Amino acid sequence: MEMAHMYIVMIASECAPVAKVGGLGDVVFGLGRELEIRGNTVEIILPKYDCMRYDHIFGMQISYENLWVPWFNYHIRCTVWFGFVHGRKCFFIEPHSNDNFFNRGAYYGFPDEYMRFAFFSKAALEFLLKTGKRPDVIHTHDWQTALIPVMLYEIYQFGGMEKCRVCHTFHNFKHQGIAGEDVLWFTGLGRPGYYYDRRRMGDDFNPKAVNFSKGAVVYSNFVTTVSPMHSWEVLNTEWGYGLGHTLHLYREKFGGVLNGLDYEMWNPETDPYIAWNYTAENYENKGKNREALRERLWMRHNSKPLVAYVGRLDSQKGVSLIRHAMFHALHKGAQFTLLGSSPELGINAEFWQLKNEFNNNPDCHLEIGYDEELAHLIYAGADMLVVPSLFEPCGLTQMIAMRYGTVPIVRAVGGLADTVFDYDYSERPGSERNGYVFYQADNYGLESAMDRAIGLWFDYPEQFLELALNGMNWDYSWNRPGADYLNIYNYIRHK
Ligand code: ADP
Q: What separation in angstroms does the CA of 116 have from each of 2, 90, 262, 375, 482?
């Protein structure tokens, strides 16, 4: 099908590497770049957080001075900034009000969270309206921007934006944006009787609440989640977190598109953050990264495999299994390292305690915190990466690991099941097998997969190498998913 080039605006709460907490940030950047490579015009709208990585923004300048955003019965003045983030065109919205929405030293985790992002959503639409920007497609992401399709349909289309279509992507169904009546009055939607109707935004389980994400399902022209397996899970299991019913009603416009990796950001051949660059052809250099990683983390140099975990320490990630992976790796004669942090104080404290306990163990190092550069070195230096998630919409860490020739050990859920194929048991041909998979979310399940991986590393190093190279040679780029999203955009544009 011949496709005309499109003007696409992404509106999101994250974009890597300037404002990134997890995979959402990677996707906004990577998909944006892919769409541009394919000849489309892409702009990204973000909040202007005080805690962003300003060193990744180039040519920051004021783009729009007095953007007055209607809010309750008054207006909040905003400044809109423009800057390039590694080539992506980004607008940053800075509100000037006592609410101080985005100057709090962290991206998330505040009691007025839904007000912060309802305001951001409103301001982004107001910015498009006032500047005469009329994208063919607005792509919104997660609950933070889920009110955009609602406000576009109910308010902004009447201001001349009637041709804009919306695609909404769910990166995580656990957080949906639950609010009370006040948010309706602040955003100018008003009419509680109308919006509390369960056919619109009325929450199915809390009669006193409106649900932003439900609104996105009802009002968007198309809804996606980040892997085919997860789209099935949210329709048919408890992982829809209560949205399953609504998704069923709208399943005609719902589907799963697997995330890609940005091949410039994640490329062992050119990665500036790793000690030695390498490809599948000179895989030996990966070993030098392992040495560099051990050096950096004060770990002992020896001939043990290095098992790693990188990611948020959220209950979703299987915190007790991550912890067990550490004990089991050490028990099996491997080394273990972890990079992660949690906004939950309890979980953080637990891992700090583990870190202190194992402080003197030269085969183990835990790094509690967020560190983009160190993450790259771990992907390059580790031999195996464990991802024992309870649920995982897509998961990028296993794909990054494979790109870096690190063998993933994953639980068979969501995107993990769509991307990792077991060395021993997969139905795929040998050349497509790329890791280890377990099913049960308990220590035995995890151990069975870890034992097989560590066993192969010790006893059949050549086969282990082959497995790692299978991962390196697979295409996890945005190439295919980029085409899938363009098909979706094109489909909704002509509806
Ligand atoms: P989620 O979106 O649930 O956090 P994903 O696997 O989709 O999980 O994406 C995680 C992304 O965030 C990866 O790019 C990973 O490298 C990065 N990341 C997570 N935690 C950290 C950390 N503590 N330090 C550096 N990078 C991290």
A: 41, 19, 29, 30, 30
